[in-house]
Design goal:
This is ABC-type multidrug transport system, ATPase component. By secondary structure, the chain is α/β, with parallel strands linked by helices. It has 8 helices and 9 strands. Strand 6, helix 6 and strand 7 form a beta-alpha-beta unit. The protein is globular.
Length: 246
C-alpha cells in the first residue's frame, strides 16, 4: 500500500522554482530519506505533504488524504518534527505535551509523557521551562511530540540535530523499530551517512528536482551512497544514473 504519493508536484515562489514536477511514491513501512544539499527543496516537500503549503500545481496524497484539500485531517493523522522547531519557551515539556495530547484527544497523555520522557532521557526536565533547556533537550521534547500519539506516518526534518552521540544511536534504533512495526517514516537530511545508515529508500533532490532513488542496502561495496549521491548530483538528471529503488 502507498503511504505517500506525489504527481507533478510543483512549487514556485515568484521567479524561484522550489520544486519542479516532483513524482514520488513511498510505500507503507518504508524508512524513506530525501537527501539533498541545503536549498534543494526538502523542507518545501514536507511542508506541502503536511498541509502547510499549497503547491503551485500538481497533487499529492498522504495516507490516502489530499493535504491541500484536507490539511487538518492530514496533520491529525501524522507526526511532524520540523527542523529547528522548539517547544514554546513559556511552557515546560510536561505542559507542552499535555497540550499536544489534549489537541489530539488522547485520554492517557500522562502515561505517554512518562513513557517518552524515559525513552528520550528528559524525565528530569519535565517541569523545567523550555527556555531553560539545552538545544538537545528541546529536540528530545519535539521528538516525543511527533511520536507519542502513535501515528502510522511521521515526517522528520533532520532527525538527529543537536543530539549527543549516545542519544543519536538510541533514536536511530527507535526509528528502525518504528518502521519494522509497519509504520512509515519520511525524513529529510543533507547528511549522507544518516541516510545510508537508516533508510530503506533514498531519493536525491537537487534544485527541486528528484534525480534518482536507490535502496542503499543494495549498493555494492564499491559504490557507497555518497558516491551514488555525488554521481547523481553531478549528472544531468534522472537519466544520468540508473535508480535501484524498490
Amino acid at each position: 500500500m502507498t503511504a505517500i504519493e506525489t504527481t507533478d508536484l510543483r512549487m514556485e515562489f515568484g521567479d524561484v522554482t522550489a520544486l519542479a514536477d516532483l513524482n514520488l511514491t513511498v510505500g507503507d513501512g518504508e524508512l524513506f530519506g530525501l537527501l539533498g544539499p541545503n536549498g534543494s527543496g526538502k523542507t518545501t516537500t514536507i511542508e506541502i505533504l503536511t498541509g502547510q503549503l499549497r503547491p503551485t500545481s500538481g497533487g499529492a496524497t498522504v495516507l490516502g488524504i489530499d493535504p491541500v484539500e484536507e490539511p487538518l485531517e492530514v496533520r491529525s493523522q501524522v507526526g511532524i518534527l520540523p527542523e529547528r522547531e522548539d517547544p514554546p519557551s513559556f511552557l515546560t515539556p510536561r505542559e507542552y505535551l499535555e497540550f499536544a495530547g489534549e489537541i489530539r484527544g488522547l485520554d492517557d497523555t500522562a502515561d505517554r509523557i512518562d513513557e517518552w520522557a524515559g525513552k528520550l532521557a528528559f524525565e528530569g526536565k519535565l517541569d523545567t521551562l523550555a527556555t531553560n533547556l539545552s538545544e538537545g533537550e528541546r529536540q528530545r521534547v519535539m521528538l516525543a511530540q511527533a511520536f507519542f500519539h502513535e501515528p502510522s506516518l511521521v515526517f522528520i526534518d533532520e532527525p538527529l540535530v543537536n543530539l549527543d552521540p549516545i542519544l543519536q544511536e538510541e533514536v536511530k534504533d527507535h526509528l528502525r523499530a518504528y518502521c519494522e512495526a509497519g509504520n512509515t517514516l519520511f525524513l529529510s537530511t543533507h547528511f549522507v551517512d544518516v541516510a545510508e545508515e537508516l533508510c530503506t529508500q533514498v531519493g536525491v533532490l537537487r534544485e527541486g528536482r528528484l534525480l534518482g532513488t536507490t535502496d542503499p542496502r543494495t549498493l555494492s561495496e564499491e559504490e557507497s551512497l555518497l558516491e551514488y549521491f555525488l554521481a547523481t548530483v553531478d549528472g544531468d538528471g534522472p537519466e544520468a544514473v540508473p535508480t535501484t529503488g524498490r
